[in-house]
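Backbone-to-sequence.
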């Protein structure tokens, strides 16, 4: 489903965040971060639902990474 959305619109913020969440759950931090960065760069203040979700997922990824380094 996400692949289909991104095939039609590679900048679909909701699909990018969804794919970032899948990558994060699979432990693929760098690809997840790249996807989140695309969304956050276009909505730095998190004014859209996808932008706010991207920031929340990025914060969760940061917390996971910090915890794994401790």
């Amino acid at each position: 489903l996400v692949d289909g959305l991104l095939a039609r619109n590679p900048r679909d913020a909701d699909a990018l965040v969804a794919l970032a969440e899948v990558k994060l759950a699979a432990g693929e931090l760098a690809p997840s971060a790249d996807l989140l960065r695309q969304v956050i760069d276009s909505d730095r203040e998190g004014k859209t639902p996808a932008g706010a979700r991207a920031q929340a997922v990025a914060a969760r990824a940061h917390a996971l990474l910090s915890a794994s380094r401790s």
